[in-house]
Structures are given as structure tokens and as C-alpha cells.
């Protein structure tokens, strides 16, 4: 079970929650940072943070499906953007909002950074997601 919380007395966040509570015993997936690489390892959208954010979300979706989850089950993210300009960070956040990832809304931190791991990389998103019980049961059946 997920409970998304906006703390009383704090400024209400526009498209995320202050906290997400996950019931004990729930299976969680902690995903490595999704990056804007294609299947050949090439950076997609060179110089374009918005295009890279779109590719990062495609890749994040693949990571989630690989563990039996999806964007709607994400409880927390960290969104890293190589920029010190709030307008660039906002443009990337608009892509995140449009993706369905912010459905819930999940808890998130948006951070401008100096650089990321791949040459030309402008965006990376780490995530924690719930793996729904029905997905867990399907996985167990598939393994047997």
C-alpha cells in the first residue's frame, strides 16, 4: 500500500508529494540512474536536455518493466540535469510530468549538477518503485 503525503502547514508542492509511505512487506525496486543512451550506447539528443529527458524516461520504463513494475508505481525519484538555469530544469520537469511518472504524485528532487557520467549526458533519473503483488505472483508462476 502507498500513502502519498503533503505535510500540513508547508507550501503545497505543485506536482509531487512531500513524502510517500510504503507498507512493510511490500516489494521495492531501487533502480540505477536511467540515462539517455540508445541500445548501441550512444547519447540520444546531444545538447538537448528535453530530448534526453524523453529518452531517459523511455529507458526508465524499460528498467521498471524488467522488474515487474511501471511508471505509476514509482514512489521516489531524483532528477539530475546538467544546468544551473531554472528554465532548463523546468523544461525537463515538464517532460517528467507529461510522462505519467508524476502520477500519484511521487516524491521527487530536481537537481542542477555540473556534469554526469557520459560525455554529452545532460539528464539522469534514479527511482524507487513498488513491484505490485500481482506482478510478483506472475513472476513466481513464470519461474515455476
Structural commentary:
This protein is α+β, with helices and mostly antiparallel strands. 29% of the residues lie in helices and 27% in strands. The protein is built from three helices and six strands, in the order βββαβαββα. The protein has a four-stranded mixed beta sheet. A two-stranded antiparallel ribbon has the order 1-2. Strand 4, helix 2 and strand 5 form a beta-alpha-beta unit. Helix 1 runs parallel beside helix 2. The protein is globular and about 40 Å long.
Q: Low-confidence segments, ≥5 residues, pLDDT <50?
A: none
Shape descriptor: globular
User: Sheet with the most strands?
Assistant: 4 strands, mixed
Estimate what percentage of residues fall within beta strands: 25-35%
| Category by helix and strand content | alpha+beta
Give the count of helical stretches: 3
Give the averaged pLDDT, no decimals: 89
Query: What strand line-up does the widest sheet have?
Result: 3-6-4-5
Write down how many β-strands occur, each being a DSSP E stretch of 2 or more residues. 6
Work out the radius of gyration: 16 Å
Query: Would you list the SSEs in sequence order as H and E?
Result: EEEHEHEEH
Distance between the termini: 27 Å
Percentage of helical residues?
A: 25-40%
